[in-house]
Structures are given as C-alpha cells and as structure tokens.
C-alpha cells in the first residue's frame, strides 16, 4: 500500500508579532501530530500592512490593551515563557533580512537565528532596535554578527525578502502569523486547530 505524501504547513512570520512567537512554539507540535513538514516563510509585516492597508493591534489602544491579556492567556495555555517587550514597537527590517539571509545560506543556522531572535524579543525583552544589542544576541547564540550584517546589506537578500513579502500578499496574506495548507489560508495563532484539521484531511 502506497503511503500518502507528507503535507506541508507554510508558516509566514515576522519577529515583531508576539502571536508569531507563540505560533513558532506551537506549530511544530501541530506539524508533528499531523505528520507534516513546515516551510518557514519570513516576511516583512510592515510591507504587508502597507500593501493591504492593515494595521498593528498596538495602533488601536483598546485592542492593544486587550492583546496583552490575550497573549498571557495563550502563553499559559502553551506553557510558554513570554513577556511584553518594553522596547516595543521594534523595526524588524534588519531582523527579517537576516532571517532571509540565513535561510538562503543554511537551514541549521536559520533555525538557530530564529530561536535566538524570538527569545530575545518575547522572553528576554532585549532592545532589538539597537544594532549593538542585535550583535550581542547573535554572539550569544554562536552566530557571527559581522556575517549577519553583510547579509542585511546584500542586495540579493533585500530583494528576496521584498519578493517573499509581495508573494505572500498575492496569496492573500494580510497579517502574521499566517499559515497556508495547500491553497487554504489561515490567519492567527488561534487558528492552529483548523490548520491541524486541514493537514490531516
């Protein structure tokens, strides 16, 4: 009997989204239960907002206050360490370019980088608006800050992130975290149960 092909969970994220951090912790569990693979899709949320007219919840005071409580609830549900970054909002352009650069270079380095930045952003409360602070985070993770800086300034990496963001918008992405299974789009950490259903259909 021929085994069915493994399905793929495309995961679109930006480090500036705390819900992306929570989904980053939970999506691998979902994929494992469903026997699926994850295709990591770093994109620039600012570019998505500009293209779609969407806005950050932080720009709406009532929603921003509610989100802090909601995030704490989800963190408790996942048993995840989490605290709101005191330096938020953080411009993630350099961070997302580096993510794209590492992904183009080496999957293991990419995964180490993603873990380090999410940890620094949403657990340790580091000021990732400061390039020196980013460099310190990378060095602590065993990554070369000079290599990361070179990737951030690489025109090919800049273009790759721009193209990835535009392609995501073209597929219907308007915020993060977003997930695509086949051609079906899901938005939000709280839609992962629907993602799991789609992966196992």
UniProtKB/TrEMBL annotation:
Catalytic activity: 2-hydroxychromene-2-carboxylate = (3E)-4-(2-hydroxyphenyl)-2-oxobut-3-enoate
EC number: 5.99.1.4
Domain of life where this protein originates: Bacteria
Keywords: Isomerase
SUPFAM superfamilies: Thioredoxin-like
CDD domains from the UniProt entry: DsbA_HCCA_Iso
Domain called DSBA-like thioredoxin: residue spans: 8-199
Entry's family note: Belongs to the GST superfamily. NadH family.
PANTHER family: GLUTATHIONE S-TRANSFERASE KAPPA, GLUTATHIONE S-TRANSFERASE KAPPA 1
Protein name, UniProt field: 2-hydroxychromene-2-carboxylate isomerase
Gene source species: Cupriavidus malaysiensis
């Amino acid at each position: 009997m021929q085994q069915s092909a493994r399905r793929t969970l495309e995961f679109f994220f930006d480090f500036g989204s705390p819900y992306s951090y929570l989904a980053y912790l939970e999506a691998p569990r979902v994929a494992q239960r469903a026997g699926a693979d994850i295709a990591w899709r770093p994109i620039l949320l600012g570019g998505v907002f500009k293209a779609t007219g969407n806005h950050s919840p932080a720009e709406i005071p009532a929603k921003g206050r509610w989100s802090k409580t909601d995030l704490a609830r989800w963190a408790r549900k996942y048993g995840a360490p989490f605290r709101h970054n005191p330096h938020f909002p953080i411009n993630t352009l350099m961070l997302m370019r580096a993510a794209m650069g590492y992904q183009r270079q080496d999957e293991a380095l990419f995964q180490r980088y993603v873990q380090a930045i999410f940890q620094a952003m949403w657990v340790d409360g580091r000021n990732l608006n400061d390039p020196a602070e980013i460099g310190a985070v990378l060095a602590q993770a065993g990554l070369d800050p000079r290599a990361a800086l070179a990737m951030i300034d690489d025109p090919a990496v800049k273009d790759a992130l721009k193209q990835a963001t535009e392609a995501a918008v073209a597929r219907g992405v308007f915020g993060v975290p977003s997930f695509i299974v086949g051609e079906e789009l899901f938005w939000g950490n709280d839609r992962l149960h629907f993602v799991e259903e789609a992966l196992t259909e």
